[in-house]
């Protein structure tokens, strides 16, 4: 009988495409949860050419979590032949491992096209976690060399399956700070709001993914409502900004609106607390403009759902057939403004629950701790 796998007492390397900062996404949350379970976790930030050498510092969230920053040994991957890149990245990894002085039991990569061959970590278990889509036609080597893969959306799962059949759906997770608020939500279910509703949106505003044209229409059509945005909107932040003129134009538009509040990047705990005061949430992405994003899932959705408040959304494939979102029936956002307006009116009139306890319970069942348990079970069943 195969021994059950458990994330306990292990050395784990998390390979992240994002730096450590106040704005947290799945990579950061999994690192924290793994450390809280007693594992020694090294969070490898993406290479930084401005950093001096290699540095390691403990994270405030756990004494078992370390943030690793390093300067790359080389630059210009696209100009290098594959055999040379493979040699150089293996030297980069050897230097990192020698500096850290540890051998990983698990390498868990969220970062495609970086180390490519996960086997070179020499870890007993190699995981690739598809939290984001990628635009390249070829598959990253991380997928082909992983023992098991996970995906947060049907689209990502199908793409990974092209290179690794051992892939499974795992929804985004809910962090502990949102769970704490969800546990208290049912104690005081709010009454229906007035038409002067507070509308919440969380996410990097420098992304090209949002449907800026449709969002502008919605904001302009509801001057009586207050639109609150959490997330990076200045380029000097932890997340990558896009130089597309449409992005800058949208941010400038938001700054000019009297009914818009830009909160910027705030600590997760503070954002979670502020989001409890929101009457309705929304997400509106372009779902056909790029392979990089198709709107098939977002880590923010569970945070919205955990409040119990109604959520208006573009078509989100991961939630098709559920009642947790009031979403468009297909990839077109043409009727999105109408869906938004009708939902807001229905909340005020009481035709839609101001807070839905079933939604709160669904989110509470998808914490990062719960997702780790599901991942452990899948590893036990499908990794020899």
Q: What would you say about this model in short?
A:
Helices cover 33% and strands 16% of the residues. The chain has helices at 26-36, 82-100, 141-145, 154-161, 176-185, 212-221, 245-256, 268-275, 299-306, 336-349, 357-364, 368-382; strands spanning 11-15, 40-44, 54-58, 65-70, 106-109, 125-130, 148-151, 167-169, 198-202, 226-230, 260-264, 280-283, 311-313, 326-327.
Counted up, domains total 2
Poorly predicted parts: none
At CATH level 2, the architecture of the largest domain is: 3-Layer(aba) Sandwich
Amount of helix: 25-40%
- Mind describing the biggest β-sheet? 8 strands, mixed
Corresponding CATH superfamily of the largest domain = Glycogen Phosphorylase B
Question: What class, by secondary structure content?
Answer: alpha/beta
What is the CATH top level name of the largest domain?
Alpha Beta
